[in-house]
Amino acid sequence: MTGQPTRERLRLLVVDDEKPALDELAFLLRQDDRVGEILTSDSSTEALRLLREAEVDGVLLDIAMPGLTGLDLAAVLGRFARPPAIVFVTAHAEHAVEAFDLHAVDYLLKPVRDERLHEAVRRIGEAGSEPHGAVDDTIAVELGGVTRLVARSDIQYVEAHGDYSRLHTARGSHLVRLPISSLEDRWNDAGFLRIHRSILVALAHVEEIHEEEGRVSVVVAGRELQASRRHTPALREQLRRTRRGES
Predict the structure, then answer these.
(1) pLDDT for 31-79, tens place per residue?
(2) pTM for the full model?
(3) Domains along the chain?
(4) Which residues contact residue 94 at a Cβ distance below 8 angstroms, ignoring those fewer than 6 apart?
């Protein structure tokens, strides 16, 4: 480790009102060589006091706690000048959509599996390496009965399915209970563009652009997606701006 920054390893805060769960999670985190100091707290109020005294890279917190819940605490942390990455660790799958709204980087269900905790630590580290204000957004999905958070940067394009949306990634697709218009509004400034009433594409994943007889299509992940006549002017303009290096 010689010559490396002193804060290379992560400083984490674990918050849970149940001591066995708190101790178990802290123990598991200590087995990860990416983790340095671990702070623990049995209440949201105590966690806020600790955070006034020490900056942390990530907070792993339970949801169902007396007084301020984990969701309440996450909302407060989101208003910090430099908010830590949030990972929810809970026995309740039904709060995943709220976790998405609070920009959590991961959502773990108890009992926590080693591989899922390892992935959560990776996401905390990646969130900390992003420029301030550029933390990747996430969205909660159901996969085989398990709630997971998919990073926005992994999403190649989105298809509308009524009031639902299907997210396409390199690893597969996920149906989420959100209309495509909501995702368009949320991700408009993150390089996503509506090219059809039923298609939202991530411009970073566009591989080819085809134009024939005034109709434009883009190739994303090997699939050709046709832009509607209504959305073609905006697509052309955005592609021109991208080529010029504009945002």
Answers:
(1) 999 999 999 999 999 999 899 888 999 999 999 999 889 999 998 888 8
(2) 0.59
(3) 10-135 (3.40.50.2300), 153-243 (2.40.50.1020)
(4) none
